[in-house]
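Table S7 (text form). Paired inputs.
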Amino acid sequence: MGRMTKPGDRDRATYDDPMFVASYDRDRALQPAEQAIADSLGPLGQLDMVDLGVGAGRTARHFAPAMRSYLGIDYAPGMVAHCRRELPGFRFEVGDACRLDFVADASCDFVLFSYNGIDHVGFEERGQVLDEMARILRPGGTLAFSSHNANFLPEIVARFCWRLPLQDGPRAVARALRDSLLFRYHNPTLLRRMPVAQAVVNDGLHNFRSSGICYIRPDLQVRELRARGLQDVRCLRHDQATFIDGADPVVAALPNPWIYYVCRTAPAG
């Protein structure tokens, strides 16, 4: 939920839908990995934060009151309007994660892009988002985001392989068949390419109301971060609070649905 979409892109319309705004507002807890990242930052009251893909304000509720300054950004005006109503004491703006023109260079200490929001951006634009996140950070600042894990794609594929559910009623059978056909329609070559290191997949998000989600193998994402000059790259499984060094060989085989990545810009001097 972090970038402005092209006209006609149904992702933006989905996230502007009041029904989906209300749905996302029901989830208000930090994930274990996010809490671990917060705990690793030191005194939050000394930090300026930019929160990308803020959605209905899940992360804002935890971070905004604790930070020295806070800016929440989302590409969906409906989400931003909701955050402004719910958290009127803090700043929220509609913005494009690829072009954060209204955020000055080296103006924050921590930038977060949670809930796999970066995966709504195509691979060709992903680097622009990372560059913008690094640009607005001060030297030694912390960049964190989560992303869907390509190692989990076999689980996604298995979920949509239709089998006759003998124990279920006719409605369940029809729904399972429909979802299997929709998955194959939206991902016509995926089965032939498995396993894949990275791919854009329509994984059934919002009942297939999605333009596709980027999945990437964790070691490839770590490599991209290092290639952009980012340092101290660490990973976390989304449901755990233990940091894993990005250079650890175990990273390539992490099985979780999504992974958190944490790194720093180069220190001053």
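Next pair, protein 2 of 2.
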Amino acid sequence: MNKNEIYELINQNPVFFLATCDGDQPRVRGMLLYKADEESGIVFHTGIMKDLYDQVIKNPKVELCFNDFKSGTQVRVRGELEVIDDNNLKDEISAHPTREFLKPWKDSMTQQEFYDSFVVFRLRNGIAVTWTMKDNFAPKIEIML
């Protein structure tokens, strides 16, 4: 797969698993992608009250795992997360039709409280590795995103 095909797979399969570290204990949880492209990187969000936030602030090195079950392809992307502190982007995300679930949370506080409690992460310059059953034993090929 090339870089464009990887971004296409990621966007078509927006539910992914995120691995972080909590001291010496790995932690994995399901997440929902906001968007992914060469310019923006891989963008998603959470609340600062989540353990995920503390883990990433302490150690921004993570791995994301996307699965296309139709084709049997898995894409893992490793790299470092950065916080995007952009209230316009937070507004864009919270107003997006796929983010209706954020509305009650956002409406329960002032706009500034929402901005302060909502964090957007981006992974840029990640290294992707693909996997299928067909190439299960083949050497891994790293693709720079």
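The chain has five helices and eight strands.
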